[in-house]
Amino acid sequence: MLYSGRFVDRKGIPELFQAIPRVLEYEPNVQFVLAGGYGTADQIEGAWLNESLAPYRHQIHFTGWLTPDKVSEWYRCADILVMPSWYEPFGIVILEGMLHGISIAATAVGGPLDILQDERNALLFPPRDVEALAQAIIKLVRRPELLHRLGQEAAKEVRRNWLWSRS
Question: Would you say residue 167 has pLDDT above 70?
Answer without folding.
Answer: no
